[in-house]
Design goal:
Elements (H helix, E strand, L loop, with lengths): L9 H5 L42 H4 L25 E4 L2 E3 L2 E3 L1 E7 L5 E7 L4 E5 L2 E4 L5 E5 L4 E7 L5 E8 L2 E10 L7 H7 L1 E9 L2 E10 L7 E6 L4 E5 L2 E4 L5 E5 L4 E9 L2 E8 L2 E10 L17 E10 L4 E10 L5 E7 L16 H11 L3 E5 L16 H16 L4 E11 L1 H12 L6 E4 L6 H15 L4 H19 L5 H14 L9 H12 L2 H8 L2 H5 L6 E6 L7 H14 L5 E6 L26 H17 L2
Parallel strand pairs: 23-24, 23-25, 25-26, 26-27, 27-28
Antiparallel strand pairs: 1-4, 1-11, 2-3, 4-5, 5-6, 7-8, 8-9, 9-10, 10-11, 12-13, 12-20, 13-14, 14-15, 16-17, 17-18, 18-19, 19-20, 21-22, 22-24
């Protein structure tokens, strides 16, 4: 999902409870996809750790865009004292919580193990175990990469128990496991009847999302397959396990996104299920299909192309990252001016794919047809780009952009003196950071870029989205109060982190926004995971104004009047005032009527419209960008 969700994926999840609209008949609409590297609270440890899960399934599925799971590679050997194969259950006690993890281990047919883990308390099933092995000294290791947790222990004398510890985010807790009953196998009859492709339309708070289950019955029996979310461009999400339940019911576990589908066939072509995810329960009727139709996206570029296309890779030596992208270069001798496109928050692919829209491809195509080369790049951990070892802040991502500029300057047919940046949403925050340090940047185009602090954007965005969705004014007022309290605690450098967390927990527990919420402590833990993340702390504290004051190149700042993520008035004004104060006279700001955060013509600006609109990117804005860039680069000739 594109950085168009600058606030809606990273930021609305921060206000998981703050923007909770359940009391007015609404659901939280937004979530973010990058799991932060954080430390678990000693009081509120979750077996899921700080894996961020929003109550809205649409955004939880975006976890897959990180390719966090590509099938578990499990190694192992048979221990002398007992077999690791089987189901193992135990009570994990930490503070006032008692969780009940169940590890289910089976041979993988290649001398190793396949394993998953369940927890009835937190109601997740089939979370992949990334490593299951018995070491030479008999130590059993079960690692769950998605939670940064590891069990390490030894078999009991009779081989029917494991005694050890669970380690997670710096905490260490005793955990004893004992054998328990295995799950019954899915019968051949049920497996055969469910094999095939099943499509359903998930409807939550006005958002419509197509989901497709691809099931097959291998010769070894049971069911396996994948989940597709075509509207998000997230396909091939592995099904981690399929369980037989009562009668002919099955539970299809998609552990990578902490979702499961429970139901049974109504007739040969109708599969009625409930999808469970993040504490929510969503009815879904799935129909047998041969293939899933594509949504109409008339602006998606089609061959033949009057420019050359190059698949490229380059290194960010500072971050230790390999970045992969697509460079389109106009036909001819050159040298040509060029732009590097910068995505917004969350892990984006090079096209900023969302609901089958590919806005960055549309922009790159339009520019290259007009004689301007364009480089669009997969974000860290997406597609062909490698991930970093630590959670990245906007400042870290700016080094990726700087590496891209350096790469372009070395390319044949590219004029190194006419390279500019186009940043969307958070990309519009990052672009000035790069230009402020690199006087050779020729120009900037800021698409829905911020001109106020991250904190202010968060507060404003939550209120705008809530009001547009019909949230009661009393709840909006409470959301703002709680947000500001939490942000004060996060940004207070004089407050001990443990004490800050204690106060945040107390504030959330006492807020009406959480009252009556299912799995309250799990929701609080998820919110804390966001609030503790390096990205969030940096974003809340960052003020783009001092950076913009240092930008001396020409700047075009655009926004839509229906942008609910980065409100146009305050942010365009902030950008203009900062540039003028810094002595930059070559800038233009434009607020386009009736355009949303994706620069689509819209009615409300809500995310519920994004997939329903056929337009990917307003042609008028494409023309304005292109004309403005051409005039600026001609001035440099």
């Amino acid at each position: 999902m594109p950085g168009s969700f600058f606030v809606a994926h990273r930021l609305a999840e921060v206000v998981l409870a703050l923007s909770r609209q359940g009391r007015s008949g609404q659901k939280a609409k937004n979530c973010q996809q990058n799991a932060p590297k954080t430390r678990a609270s000693k009081h509120y440890i979750s077996f899921m750790g700080t894996l961020r899960v929003c109550l809205h399934p649409f955004f939880v599925l975006l976890l897959t865009l990180m390719a966090s799971l590509q099938g578990s590679v499990l190694l192992g050997q048979e221990p002398a004292t007992g077999s690791l194969a089987g189901s193992w259950v135990g009570d994990l006690k930490a503070g006032n919580q008692t969780l009940r993890p169940v590890f289910r281990v089976i041979p993988d047919g290649e001398g190793g193990w396949k394993a998953t883990v369940d927890d009835e308390v937190q109601r997740f099933y089939g979370l992949p175990v990334s490593l299951a092995q018995v070491e030479a000294d008999g130590t059993v290791r079960l690692e769950v990469a998605m939670t940064a947790g590891t069990f390490s222990g030894k078999f009991t004398e009779d081989g029917n128990g494991l005694e050890g510890t669970w380690k997670q985010r710096g905490g260490e807790f005793p955990l004893s496991l004992e054998r328990t009953d295995d799950l019954p196998a899915v019968s051949k009859e049920v497996a055969g009847s469910l094999a095939g492709h099943w499509k359903g339309l998930l409807q939550v708070s006005g958002v419509e999302l197509r989901l497709v289950l691809n099931l097959e019955s291998p010769s070894t029996g049971g069911l396996e397959g994948t989940l597709d979310s075509p509207d998000q461009g997230a396909n091939g999400i592995p099904i981690s396990r399929v369980d037989a339940l009562e009668g002919k019911q099955v539970r299809i576990c998609v552990g990578a996104v902490l979702a499961n589908f429970v139901g049974e066939l109504q007739d040969p072509d109708t599969f009625k299920v409930h999808m469970f995810q993040g504490g929510g329960r969503f009815p879904l009727t799935m129909k047998r299909v041969e293939q899933v139709e594509a949504l109409p996206r008339p602006q998606t570029p089609k061959a033949p192309f009057p420019y050359s296309i190059h698949e490229v890779e380059y290194q960010n030596e500072v971050g230790g990252i390999t970045l992969a992208g697509t460079l389109t270069v106009p036909n001819g001798e050159g040298p040509f001016p060029a732009v590097l496109l910068i995505t917004g928050s969350g892990a984006q692919d090079r096209d900023e794919t969302i609901f089958e829209h590919k806005p960055f491809w549309v922009i790159a195509d339009h520019l290259s047809r007009a004689g301007i080369a364009a480089l669009r790049v997969d974000d860290r951990g997406v597609g062909g780009s490698s991930g970093g070892e630590t959670a990245a802040t906007s400042a870290d991502l700016a080094t990726d952009v700087a590496a891209g500029v350096a790469f372009l300057r070395q390319r044949p047919k590219i004029d190194p003196k006419r390279i500019g940046l186009i940043g969307h949403s958070e990309g519009g925050l990052i672009a000035p950071m790069v230009a402020a340090e690199d006087a050779q940047i020729a120009f900037l185009v800021l698409l829905a870029g911020p001109g106020t602090t991250g904190r202010q954007i968060l507060v404003d965005q939550t209120e705008l989205i809530g009001r547009a969705a019909g949230t009661e004014e009393s709840m909006l007022k409470e959301n703002r109060r709680l947000q500001n309290l939490l942000f004060d605690l996060i940004l207070d450098e004089n407050l001990d982190p443990a004490e800050a967390e204690k106060q945040m927990i107390a504030a959330m527990k006492s807020s009406p926004a959480y009252a009556g919420q299912e799995a309250e402590e799990a929701a609080i833990e998820r919110a804390l995971g966001i609030l503790r993340s390096p990205w969030m702390r940096y974003f809340l504290a960052h003020d783009p104004v001092p950076v913009l004051e240092k930008v001396k190149c020409p700047v075009l700042a655009l926004n839509g009047t229906l942008d609910l993520q980065v409100p146009f008035e305050a942010n365009l004004a902030g950008i203009a005032e900062a540039l003028e104060r810094g002595g930059n006279s070559d800038f233009l700001t434009t607020a386009w009527p009736k355009l949303n955060h994706l620069f689509q013509h819209a009615e409300t600006g809500l995310v519920t419209e994004y997939g329903k609109i056929e337009e990917t990117f307003a042609p008028q804005v494409l023309e304005q960008m292109t004309d403005w860039i051409q005039k600026r680069i001609q001035a440099k000739d």
